[in-house]
Specification:
142 residues, alpha+beta, Nucleoside Triphosphate Pyrophosphohydrolase, 7-stranded mixed beta sheet, 7 strands
Length: 142
């Protein structure tokens, strides 16, 4: 059985910064910085699960914002699938964090916080993915 997940790198068009969340101490990969996201529920499409995860983890409704898929990672055994999106908002917001996270930061892409969640780190080390993110940034700059 595979586990399908979706996550987002949330980008503020007005500041050119991205949202990262600090994982709580009782979670896997505690103390690492990652993206909003998680496992899809039965029957959910990746984008539906993404909007739900955003509501649950940062307390905002962003389903009317622009979302762009940038990567779908599938493990070798196909037991784990992760859909990564960039979600574009006009302005930064103060997240209302649930129990999964204990902190947040808005930073420029090259100033991402450390240590990154291992999955996010792997995504960020793929040059093609970083280039996609930079192209998207240039398209959404005001």
């Amino acid at each position: 059985m595979s586990h399908t997940n979706a996550g987002a790198l949330i980008y503020s068009r007005n500041t050119g910064r991205f949202l990262f969340l600090l994982r709580n101490a009782d979670k896997k990969y505690k103390g690492t910085w990652g993206l909003v996201g998680g496992r899809l529920e039965t029957g959910e499409r990746p984008i539906e699960g993404l909007w739900r995860e955003i509501r649950e983890e940062v307390g905002v409704e962003l389903s009317d914002c622009k979302s762009i898929p940038i990567e779908t990672f599938t493990s070798v055994d196909a037991a784990f699938i992760y859909h990564t999106f960039v979600v574009v908002v006009d302005d930064e917001f103060i997240p209302i964090l649930n129990s999964e996270h204990r902190g947040y930061t808005w930073v420029e892409l090259n100033d991402y916080p450390r240590p990154l969640h291992p999955g996010v780190f792997k995504t960020f080390t793929i040059k093609v993915i970083r280039n996609k993110i930079k192209v998207l940034q240039s398209l959404f700059l005001q």
